[in-house]
Automatic annotation (TrEMBL):
Residues 2-242 form the ABC transporter domain. The keyword Transferase does not apply. Keywords: ATP-binding, Nucleotide-binding, Transport. This is Peptide/nickel transport system ATP-binding protein. InterPro entries: AAA+_ATPase, ABC_transp_ATP-bind, ABC_transporter-like_ATP-bd, ABC_transporter-like_CS, Oligopep_ABC_C, P-loop_NTPase. NCBIfam families: oligo_HPY. GO terms for molecular function: ATP binding; ATP hydrolysis activity. GO terms for biological process: peptide transport; transmembrane transport.
Length: 301
């Protein structure tokens, strides 16, 4: 349904008074999201996850590559695209208009798209995201963080989209609420709505995802089913990421050495300078192989 083909995105940031340097946020990312699938993009801060989400939402344009929704280039689609693809962001406090009531927030996309039967559709959407109807006249500041995120999800699904891009939808919430919000995405899946779940939270991936893509410095290093990637990670970076899923106490965590600046920006593999299993050839070439239906960008295979 969603087909991302060889997407590249470079930002130019000021390095000194007169100079700019490139930040390669995405380097040839390709993936497909099927109907009703929850596809998780996982990676550490700065790996390019949000940039990919923004490109799918058309908030950024790729420098190269294509994004297709049901075989149509999303950048040549009109307003219709915003009916088919919607977004849920990390912080509902900033993504919801504080002056609007819950009803007005959820109603807005229906008005923008000239829809009929608005009151009933708003109510159905709120029910589906488990927002009590007595909250209809409340404003975001009168709701808890979890309820605000439910309202944001109601707004995202009110037009019955094909795909939701959810960028860290549980990151601002208490642990006790996180699972409830993730359950909503599982419910949407039953209604054949796909989710591109952008997260650094491996537990969220474990709980919800069908397939997982691991992003490292703009390169999708591994893509496979949840069980393939989480139970038997092949890429050395995925292995590192999973070994460092937050443990009970910060003292038990390993140093996050892989967030150090790259020592060798010119090597083919983005993980070259930090990889414990690197080969000499990884400086010059990077192979993508398919193993049991999963993709790995690594010369070890
Ligand atoms: N508008 C921008 N201008 C300049 N650099 C940017 C811009 N947006 C992103 N970047 C850079 O691109 C890289 C990828 O950023 P991105 O936000 O996509 O990563 P991320 O994996 O979502 O990280 P986080 O979880 O911290 O948001 C980073 O180095 C970031 O600093």
């Amino acid at each position: 349904m969603l087909n991302i083909q060889d997407v590249h995105k470079t930002f130019w940031v000021k390095s000194s008074l007169f100079k700019k340097k490139p930040v390669h946020a995405l380097k040839g990312v390709s993936l497909k999201v099927e109907r009703g699938e929850i596809f998780a993009i996982v990676g550490e801060s700065g790996s390019g996850k949000s940039t990919l989400g923004k490109i799918v939402l058309r908030l950024e344009r790729p420098d190269k590559g294509k994004v297709l929704l049901e075989d149509r280039d999303v950048f040549s689609m009109g307003k219709e695209y915003t009916k088919l693809v919607s977004a849920v962001f990390q912080d509902p406090t900033t993504s919801l208009n504080p002056r609007y009531t819950v009803y007005q927030i959820v109603e807005e996309p229906l008005l923008v798209h000239g829809q009929k039967d608005i009151p009933n559709r708003v109510k159905r959407s709120l029910e589906l995201s488990q927002v009590p109807l007595e909250y209809l006249e409340r404003r975001p500041t009168q709701l808890s963080g979890g309820q605000r995120q439910r309202v944001a999800i109601s707004r995202a699904i009110v037009l019955e989209p094909r795909l939701i891009v959810a960028d860290e939808p549980t990151a601002s919430l208490d642990a006790s609420i996180r699972r409830e919000i993730l359950n909503l995405f599982l419910k949407l899946k039953e209604r054949n709505i796909s989710t591109l779940l952008i997260t650094h939270d491996v537990r969220a991936v474990e709980y919800t995802a069908d397939r997982v893509g691991v992003l490292y410095r703009g390169v999708l290093v591994e893509v496979g089913s949840k069980s393939q990637v989480l139970k038997n990670p092949l890429h050395p970076y995925t292995q590192y990421l999973l070994e460092n899923v937050p443990v009970k106490h910060p003292r038990e965590r390993r140093p996050r050495s892989f967030l150090e600046p790259m020592l060798d920006e010119t090597s083919s593999c983005p993980f070259y300078s930090l990889c414990p299993k690197r080969l000499e050839e990884c400086r010059y070439t990077l192979r993508e192989v398919s193993i049991d239906g999963r993709l790995v960008k690594c010369n070890l295979y």
